[in-house]
Amino acid sequence: MNALSRSGYLRYILYENLQCLSTTLREVLVTQRILKGVGVGRPGATALAATLSFVIRDGCGIISSLLFTSFASSGFRRDVKRWKFFSAIMLDVGLTLQILASSLSGWFLPLLCLGSICKALYNVTSSPCAGVIKLHWAVKLLGTGDGIAEISAKGRSQKTLIQLVSLIIAGMGVNLLDGVNQNGLRISLYCVLTSMHLVCNKMSLQLIALDWLNGWRLHRVVQEFLKCVDGKAKEVEMHNIRVSGPTGISKVEPVLFSPAIHHDIRMGVSYDEIVQLSLEPKSILESNLKKKHQSSYIVALRYNRRTPFVAVAFFPNITKRETAKAYLHSCLICRALTCLSKHNDTEELELLRKAKDMGKLKLMHLWPLFEKCTCAEGWDLDKTESYSEGYEVYADSLR
Fold it and tell me: What is the pTM for the complete model shown?
């Protein structure tokens, strides 16, 4: 029990059960309003009209889930927390639209369909995110991913029990609310339950300390590392470097999607873009790529409107650890280019060459130190999930 409490798992389960409670109670309210919207208890309403409404609603949900899966599924693990919170928002929006549909009779079917689409996006994102999170807790509590079956089974049992209790509470509450003429109490109750769902979701995500670096975490750790080594002598002692570990990062990591924080660095770009940015002619670049290379990525840069820009192309043999190295390399080049431009009147081409050489030299010195620091704080660089545009360069296929 002490181990469960120290790990934060008990609080996580509490927040998850409160979310389940709020969702089940709201779904009962929504079901009641939808049934009134399709005409239950109203003269002239037909079963055929209600059936067609449900068929159209479910069809919109199925189509949207297929389209969304093909578009976004590759990034679920990388940004599992953001997608988990996104699924919570979609569920809340979907339930809200469906409860509004009954109040706006002229917009009943469109709102019902929009609500179904939002709930379909919730279903698409919540299941894979829950799998990643359960695997995290299995490894943290039991030391191996083999415990995911036990975690899943016990979690499902708890959820079933909470749903049963919620239905009992909802059954009594619906009878009481049905006699209330004003909708103020229903609206207030729904808003409280929705707020509780979002707050508990955010609190539960802050307890999940993932030990791999995604785009945001990698950027944060690299910036903390560079801040510690900036202005120091060549020999930097490891005990003078402090970077945040998984637990510290989990408390400040954003759960909402936001514009790219590293817009000056693009990872996994196409070969054509590297050719456009390369300092060498295309023929020399291709010749160098065809030779046996020690690196698993190539870097190209430019300096546009006083802003450095670095593009990184990956070879097929790149490892996840090397993607973190490529990002650190890019940050070092950006800093070198910014520094040189302030104190150097050299022409642009020579400036870019100097920045690239400085970045390479600093990387040779700082990368081993970065590996040691991140490993000491509990990060596993071999599981890095950095942002990538998805392109790879096959040197053998170049002409």
Answer: 0.86
